[in-house]
Write a structure and sequence with these properties.
By secondary structure, this protein is of the alpha+beta class. It has helices spanning about 25-40, 80-95, 135-140, 180-185, 185-195, 235-250, 295-300, 315-325, and strands at about 1-10, 10-15, 50-55, 65-70, 75, 100-105, 110-120, 125-130, 150-155, 160-165, 170-175, 205-215, 215-225, 230, 255-260, 265-275, 280-285, 290-295, 310. The chain folds into two domains: about 1-115 and about 285-325, Diaminopimelate Epimerase, Chain A, domain 1, CATH 3.10.310.10; about 135-285, Diaminopimelate Epimerase, Chain A, domain 1 (Roll). The protein has a 19-stranded mixed beta sheet that branches. A hairpin with an 8-residue loop joins strand 3 and strand 4. The longest helix has 16 residues, at about 235-250. It binds ligand LBFN2T5F. The site of ligand LBFN2T5F has 17 residues, from strand 4, helix 2 and helix 6.
Length: about 325
């Protein structure tokens, strides 16, 4: 079986192309594989945040389908950072030119993707559509006694931190916080509670704290459902950008490029509003392939990685240069 190790802003994944890998894994074994190779302690080369599965598209409009399996084996409806890497992989395979957009099928929508200009020298980047957006409690899987939550309190979580909830379409709960709260334990405390047995979000939720740096720059730290604290979460940064525009920038925030910093790097976002009033977000960031991996499927399922062939691509060195430049 062949895999790629990829990342977007340090949010790292194994990428499995079911059409190419020779893998005949059934559903049960696919989940087992994700849990086994992604485990941060006993997994493959330090594990990963999830497994991205590339499949044939079910509609003609899309070139491929992406499924996202979190490290804990749960399935997510979308993954923004992962979609950029899948877009790069599919474009390479189908020999799509850099100026040509195409679509990738995800759980709820066919999403537009396209190569973007390099984020830095030799750091390939992709731009992906984040959509559909909903503020409805039903779509978010939220039970807080109201139909939506927009800069509101959930007193059982905090008496002071105000939250907004949005599905893009995976569920997100975001809050603006100051430097002190951003650096503290509150995010992990609240997110751990909401991703355990609880009545507010019985299916869990991705929780992010946003720290505003300027009218064009925010910092986002995320605790992901099914994973834990990650270096970055693409859909969370998109959801945070949308809430930032709606609550703080208002009309002048639409169609403007924002920089979203995160513990693993930086992406750019643009918040759009369609004629019918609905929103979508462009997410632009690195799509880095760090290694080509070959392993025996049966051995991988049992967590035996002794015979794995792991070949670094050299791309990570360039990405680390980009990170260093951000710190200057
Ligand atoms: N890291 C992803 C989001 C992955 C799914 C998430 N953990 C969920 O369960 O909704 C991203 O970049 O968007």
């Amino acid at each position: 079986m062949k895999l790629l190790k990829v990342h977007g802003s340090g949010n790292d994944f194994f990428l499995l192309d079911k059409m190419e890998s020779g893998s005949r894994l059934n559903e049960v074994n696919l989940i087992k594989l994700a849990k086994t190779i992604c485990d941060r302690h006993s997994g493959l080369h330090g594990g990963a945040d999830g497994l991205l599965v590339v499949l044939p598209a079910e509609h003609q409009a899309a070139l491929a389908k992406m499924r996202v399996i979190n490290a804990d084996g749960s399935e997510a409806s979308m993954c923004g950072n992962g979609l950029r890497t899948v877009a790069r992989y599919v474009a390479g395979k189908a020999q799509i030119g850099d100026d040509q957009g195409f679509q990738i099928q995800t759980m709820y929508a066919d999403l537009q993707v396209k190569a973007a200009s390099e984020l830095a020298q030799n750091v390939p980047a992709y731009e992906v559509e984040i959509s559909p957006v909903s503020f409805s409690a039903t779509d978010i899987g939220m039970h807080v006694g109201q139909q939506s939550l927009f800069n509101g309190l959930i007193p059982a979580l905090s008496e002071t931190i105000k939250f907004s909830a949005v599905a893009v379409p995976n569920p997100h709960l975001v809050a603006f916080v100051d430097d002190k709260i951003l650096a503290g334990d509150k995010l992990v405390e609240i997110a751990t509670y909401l991703n355990g047995h609880n009545s507010f979000f019985p299916d869990g939720v991705n929780v992010s704290f946003i720290n505003v740096k300027s009218a064009r720059q925010i910092f986002v730290r995320t605790f992901e459902r099914g994973v834990g604290l990650t270096s970055a979460c693409g859909t969370a940064m998109s959801a945070s950008s949308l809430i930032f525009v709606l609550q703080q920038l208002k009309e002048k925030g639409f169609e403007k490029m924002l920089e979203v910093y995160n513990p693993g790097g930086m992406v750019k976002t643009i918040v759009h509003q369609r004629q019918d009033g609905t929103y979508w977000i462009s997410l632009i960031g690195n799509a880095t392939v760090t290694a080509n991996v070959v392993l025996d499927e049966k051995a991988a399922l049992t967590g035996n990685f002794s015979e794995v062939v792991w070949q670094e691509t050299g791309e990570e060195k360039q990405y680390q240069r980009f990170i260093t430049s951000l710190k200057k």
